[in-house]
Amino acid sequence: MLRAELVSARSRLGMRGIRLHELQAKLSPIFVIGGNRSGTSIVSLMLSQHADLEGLFQDDATSRTLPSGHSIGFAESTHVWPSLDPDDRERVQRGQWPLWSLPEYLQGTYRNRAKSDREKLRLAWDVERLRSSANQPLIKDQFNTLRIGLVTDVFPKARFVLVSRQFEDFARRGIRKWSEDHESGHLQLSLNSDEPRVAL
């Protein structure tokens, strides 16, 4: 069978017929990780311009605003492994942000290993099926900071770019963004909730 026919047959079959070690040998994805508002989006966009990389970004790296008015970043790859994130629709509808500050959210997001070889294959296939070229995938999702063990379990040849920011700059930018959201009416707080809104 010719290579093109094999690829076509595999895409029709989905995951069936794909071996984990084949995907692990073929893929050396780069994961951009870092804290919120640290500059991961701009670093991801710059790296994705490299001829050997393909940014697996959602909606062509455009900014999005959620129904609550909360603005989410661009160059996001959160669609690559959505099954790993706790279901947060109910919290979004109640306007309880930021989710990443809630201990139970972080606890549900942290993963150090795949549960089984089947899960490894599924997670590797999730990356493979989103590729549209032979270039290595570039993935930016801040929650992968909590999944480095899982990522290296699935992709032993994975590489990481850690983006960090001085604490003072991070705090200043966060306050400025919060003020902009508040002035534009996008900030929604649940003042009746027992959960903390801000942690210092």
Shape: globular
Q: Tell me the helix content.
A: 25-40%
- Helix/strand/pairing class, anyone? alpha/beta
CATH architectural type? 3-Layer(aba) Sandwich
Cα(first) to Cα(last) distance is 61 Å
Report the order of strands and helices.
HHEHEEEHHHEHEH
Strand order of the largest sheet: 2-5-1-6
Quote the average pLDDT: 74
Write down the CATH class: Alpha Beta
The CATH topology, please?
Answer: Rossmann fold
Uncertain runs: 1-13, 65-72, 187-200
Estimate nothing, just give the exact number of structural domains: 1
User: How can the largest sheet be summarized?
Assistant: 4 strands, parallel
How many DSSP helices?
A: 8
Number of strands: 6
Gyration radius, in Å: 19 Å
Provide an overview of this structure.
38% of the residues lie in helices and 11% in strands. A hairpin with a 5-residue loop joins strand 3 and strand 4. The protein is globular. By secondary structure, the chain is α/β, with parallel strands linked by helices. Residues 1-13, 65-72 and 187-200 have low confidence and may be disordered. It has a single domain (3-87, 111-172), classed as 3-Layer(aba) Sandwich (Rossmann fold). The N and C termini lie far apart (61 Å). The strands form 2 sheets. The protein has a 4-stranded parallel β-sheet, with helices on one face. The protein has a two-stranded antiparallel ribbon with strand order 3-4.
